[in-house]
Amino acid sequence: MALGISVARGAQRRGVGTAMMNAMCDYADGWVGAMRIELTVYTDNLAAIRLYERHGFQIEGTHRGYALRDGVFVDAHAMARWNPHPPTRAAESANTDPGRGPA
Predict the structure, then answer these.
(1) Cβ atoms within 10 A of the Cβ of 63, count?
(2) Could you tell me if residue 27 is inside a domain?
(3) Is 9 within 8 Å of 17 (Cβ atoms)?
(4) What is each CA distance from 55 to 45, 75, 77, 103, in whole angstroms?
(5) Is 96 a domain residue?
(6) How many domains does the chain divide into?
(7) What is the pLDDT of residues 13-49, one digit of tens each?
(8) Residue 55 lies in a domain
């Protein structure tokens, strides 16, 4: 699954990005049970990088010449975050009918 988020310039620095990241991480961790979330961010987007780091993302590498922006190739970081409370097999089994066994 791929999701994209962006904050309109007029709404930046007002907590909108934080609210969206909170919702996305809650959805990925608690509802989908994703083990890991990955994202790509331009290396010069320092505000976004700080936001992602506050949500547990770490830089895993840098894509050199990732995209052509305004006629110039720019770099982007690959960042990822692991689920802080990963789902376990025992938790999955607790949600099944004991007479049927695991689904």
Answers:
(1) 14
(2) no
(3) no
(4) 16, 22, 16, 33
(5) no
(6) 1
(7) 899 999 999 999 999 998 888 999 999 999 999 999 9
(8) yes
